[in-house]
Design a protein that fits this description.
515 residues; two-stranded antiparallel sheet; two-stranded antiparallel ribbon; 4 strands; globular
Length: 515
């Protein structure tokens, strides 16, 4: 009690000048309790390298990483603009006019110089590629440390996420045959120098194949006969069609079997009309392409933030201002931020409903997802607003998991806990906790970009989240915090100390690409 009286007396006598900070932040036992300091220490110093991914044996391969960096920055792998959102509703614009080449790369929406986030989409609350995504782009820097990938957890590795997003009609809007033809034309030697399984299978050039096909991608028959080296394929209705062995473009369709010339299947169902063995070979090479990009993403690590260096020097260090130190106390104390933003990644890699409203253009609500629609929340089919409930259901059905045939370690059960989470109402409206490292660089915030600034985010948490347009039930931990204006400002000031030291420019900028 005597010590408390002395502290109060010193504060009163010091007024509002710098001496107050010395009193409040001048010693460990005054500024931070032993428990507070232990909690802050546990947040510091992200490991120098992320954990290895046994499902991608190329993850630590320098040649794969170098190739992956080229692929990450090469805009030629993208497809054409669709001007649709994830519910296939028309959007006013995309990265290019409808049907025109996008000319975007992974780096367009995941700029590693900006923590791997998208700051170029307009409007900026969701990411935009071939169309409008339903969520805010997530950072690729430090992504290899996550236990599960994506806001809703539908992928369990970086490479499986790339497999999916590259063919997404609202993202890269590309397809595996186009990607691999380009690999064969521009990166064949580099690919062969890394991958032995699933070598690029093409015999001949892209131009030679293009000369054989008509506007819909099928070979021109000669006197009614399918000429070599093209091949006949039989549709499910018994009709015969003539295709190159490897069409110029194509990816799996929604219907089983070959629907040659279908206007509802991608590229006239060119991929599904290939021989089964060739489909397998193309998919294997496409997975390799994804694993090379994932290997590069393994190198994107943001460390040595001001916060890290302050913890290493000790609480008395002046690397943090008095305001930032007070914000650190709010983070581990009254603000309860550490409940979910823990570990050196500052994410628990778990799913929580924190009361973020489903708002904004192209952000689907439960009302949009009526029975029988593309997004059917009544029957739980592609219910995008459900977050983790939808994503973890998709993870169970994902054919490119760590334990799939496409994994380099099919016995990898390290993500089994996510697969075993009960798919019940407790997961509705939950989203995986994002890392707070580099957070000042990654605006807007939350899964749908609902908040433009860190001040907005802190305000949202202080009021206990939203009570409207929030699918599911908010976590019981989300309640009004009653932070003062000063505490909110201090917390934001602390969050700005989490920006990592600059990475080597050679790692985060575009390398030389083959002409």
């Amino acid at each position: 009690m005597k010590k408390a009286v002395v502290v109060v007396a010193l504060v009163l006598s010091a007024g509002c000048g710098p001496d107050v900070d010395k009193v409040l932040c001048g010693s460990d036992d005054c500024a931070f309790s032993g428990e507070e300091w232990r909690q802050l220490q546990a947040l510091a110093n992200l490991p120098e390298a992320p954990p290895n991914d046994p499902s991608n044996k190329y993850a630590q391969n320098p040649k794969a990483q170098a190739l992956g960096q080229q692929l990450y920055f090469d805009p030629r792998f993208s497809g054409t603009a669709t001007l649709l959102d994830t519910l296939r509703r028309p959007t006013p614009y995309a990265r290019a006019p409808k049907g025109q080449p996008l000319n975007i790369s992974c780096a367009t929406c995941h700029d590693p110089a900006r923590a791997g986030a998208d700051f170029t989409s307009n409007p900026n609350h969701v990411s935009i590629g071939g169309g409008w995504y339903d969520v805010n782009s997530q950072q690729t820097v430090n992504s290899a440390y996550y236990g599960i990938i994506y806001w809703n957890g539908r992928n369990d590795s970086l490479w499986s996420q790339i497999v999916a997003v590259s063919e997404s009609f609202v993202s890269m809007a590309s397809n595996r045959l186009k990607i691999l033809w380009l690999m064969n034309e521009k990166y064949a030697a580099a690919y062969a120098g890394v991958f032995t399984a699933f070598p690029l299978p093409f015999n001949g050039t892209l131009a030679e194949t293009a000369a054989r096909v008509d506007a819909v991608g099928q070979c021109t028959k000669v006197a009614g006969v399918c000429p070599a080296p093209c091949r006949n394929a039989t549709s499910t209705d018994g009709a015969s069609s003539c295709w190159p062995r490897f069409p110029l473009e194509g990816r799996p369709g929604s219907l089983p079997g070959c629907q040659a010339g279908s206007t509802t299947e991608p590229f006239g169902d060119a991929f599904d009309c290939m021989d089964a063995d060739d489909q397998h070979t193309i998919t294997g090479a496409y997975v390799n392409w994804s694993k090379a990009i994932a290997a590069y993403e393994q190198t994107l690590v943001s460390r040595d933030s001001t916060f890290d260096r302050w913890v290493n020097e000790g609480a008395q260090s002046t690397l943090l201002t008095a305001e930032q130190k007070r914000g650190a106390r709010v983070f581990v104390g009254k603000g309860s931020c550490i409940d979910c933003h823990n570990t050196p990644l500052m994410s628990d890699s778990q799913f929580h409903n924190v009361g973020v409203p489903q708002l904004g253009a192209a952000v689907p609500t439960e009302a949009d997802c009526h029975e029988g629609s593309v997004c059917d929340c009544v029957n739980g089919k592609n219910c995008l607003p459900a977050g983790g409930l939808d994503g973890l259901a998709k993870l169970r059905a994902n054919g490119f998991r760590r334990d799939s045939m496409w994994s380099d370690s099919p016995t990898d059960t390290s993500r089994r806990a996510y697969l075993e989470l009960p798919l019940g109402e407790s997961l509705r409206g939950t989203w995986r906790t994002p890392s707070l490292r580099d957070v000042e660089l990654t605006a807007p915030y939350m899964h749908d970009g609902a908040y433009a600034t860190l001040e907005d985010v802190v305000w949202m948490y202080d009021r206990g989240g939203s009570n409207s347009n929030v699918p599911g039930k908010k976590s019981v931990q989300v309640r009004p915090l009653h932070l003062t204006a000063l505490e909110q400002a201090d917390l934001v000031s602390f969050l700005r100390t989490l920006t990592g030291a600059p990475q080597p420019s050679s790692r985060i900028t575009a390398p030389v690409l083959p002409p």
